[in-house]
């Protein structure tokens, strides 16, 4: 069954939509917190549900395959019961991790051979094996294996990436559709467009993948070395190559400004480690820009991290207390700071959605960009 996807409102290319997954309805634009191991760093799934109210977490096939492993996940009946999260999971295929492993991973036309970053053991991912792993994880959205290229890259390397990505995508969707004939499957499957920042390459990749009729489409191969300007210019045409009636997911992006600009170009879904990673390193996002909570000036500042924020952390604790926790290396700092930064990102998406639904998207976007881009570290 094709994905149940509805566009509720549009403002230019920006759109507010909703789609149905096995573990609940997802409303867009949406930011997916990164839970590489099936859980957000420093936050348990009960808190992710009750405090952050997230409906979709990104987990990683590569990492879950290595640890805890498919045997344990199978015995646990999948990641939802194992992690006690009743919302949805999207799992990346592991292609980006192979890209990140550098010399410890080798790609060929049939898959990727890599060494574990944990113990150096050798493993191999093929398009169908990656799907089988994600069945065991029981991902609500499964990403297919793709061939990612760092930018800048030669046209011949980009073309090789497209050809390999299309070949693997075809193998994945055909395998997935055959499984549907054997047993009931609720997992949705997304393809990943490649093509660098080349118009014709992006068009070619999109056309080949769209012929295969996936549940949704991701835009891969961006935020891997190109400038923001080049990324935005690429999205101006690349998004339009994708179906209007399917979710569009931009992988691994990015700053709050990036998200606003990309929503304006028609993107529905985002993920990035930035809010949680920055939180752990003292960088706090606020409505008026970023602050560095380790700065001495916050030692006696008893105001919340953001006076406009309604998150758990801002309701209960002050900058001075977070400053103290960070300086004292208390683990609770990581949890409280991460809750705030993720809440900030998710509230940004919620406000963007409301602005699109109620016809004031341009005003909201421009106002937020002014506030965010006019700010400095303080």
TrEMBL record:
Keywords: Glycosyltransferase, Metal-binding, Queuosine biosynthesis, Transferase, tRNA processing, Zinc. Zn(2+) binds at residues 309, 311, 314, 340. It comes from the Bacteria. Residues 13-372 form the tRNA-guanine(15) transglycosylase-like domain. Pfam families: TGT. Pathway: tRNA modification; tRNA-queuosine biosynthesis. It is an enzyme of class 2 (transferase). One of its GO terms (cellular component) is cytosol. GO terms for biological process: tRNA queuosine(34) biosynthetic process. Its EC number is 2.4.2.29. Substrate binds at residues 92-96, 146, 194, 221. One of its GO terms (molecular function) is tRNA-guanosine(34) queuine transglycosylase activity. This is Queuine tRNA-ribosyltransferase. It comes from Helicobacter muridarum. The lineage of its organism: Bacteria, Pseudomonadati, Campylobacterota, Epsilonproteobacteria, Campylobacterales.
């Amino acid at each position: 069954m094709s994905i149940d996807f509805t566009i509720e409102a549009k403002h230019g290319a920006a759109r507010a939509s909703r789609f149905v997954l096995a573990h609940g309805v997802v409303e867009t634009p949406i930011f997916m917190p990164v839970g590489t191991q099936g859980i957000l760093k420093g936050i348990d799934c009960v808190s992710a549900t009750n405090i952050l109210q997230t409906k979709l977490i990104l987990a990683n096939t590569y990492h879950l395959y290595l640890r805890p492993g498919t045997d344990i996940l199978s015995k646990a009946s999948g990641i939802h019961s194992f992690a006690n999260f009743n919302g949805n999971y999207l799992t990346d295929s592991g292609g980006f991790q192979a890209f990140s492993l550098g010399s410890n991973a080798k790609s060929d036309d049939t898959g990727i051979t890599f060494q574990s970053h944990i113990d150096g053991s050798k493993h191999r991912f093929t398009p169908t094996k990656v799907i089988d792993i994600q069945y065991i994880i029981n991902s609500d959205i499964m990403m297919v294996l793709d061939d990612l290229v760092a930018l800048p890259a030669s046209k011949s390397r980009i073309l090789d990436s497209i050809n390999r990505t299309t070949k693997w995508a075809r193998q994945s969707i055909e395998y997935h559709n055959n499984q549907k004939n054997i047993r009931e499957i609720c997992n949705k499957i997304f393809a990943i467009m490649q093509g660098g920042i080349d118009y014709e390459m992006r068009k070619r990749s999109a056309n080949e993948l769209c012929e295969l009729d996936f549940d949704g489409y991701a835009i891969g191969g961006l935020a891997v070395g190109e400038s923001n300007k080049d990324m935005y210019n690429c999205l101006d045409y690349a998004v339009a190559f994708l179906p209007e009636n399917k979710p569009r997911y931009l992988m691994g992006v990015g700053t709050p400004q990036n998200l606003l600009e990309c929503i304006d170009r028609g993107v529905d879904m985002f993920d990035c480690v930035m809010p949680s990673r920055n939180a752990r390193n003292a960088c706090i996002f606020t409505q008026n820009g970023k602050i560095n909570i380790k700065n001495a000036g916050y030692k006696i500042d008893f105001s919340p991290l953001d006076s406009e924020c309604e998150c758990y952390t801002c309701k209960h604790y002050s900058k001075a207390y977070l400053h103290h926790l960070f300086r004292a290396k208390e683990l609770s700092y990581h949890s409280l700071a991460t809750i705030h930064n993720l809440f900030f990102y998710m509230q940004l998406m919620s406000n963007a959605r409301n602005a699109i639904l109620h016809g004031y998207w341009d005003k909201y976007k421009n106002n937020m960009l002014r506030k965010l881009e006019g700010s400095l570290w303080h």
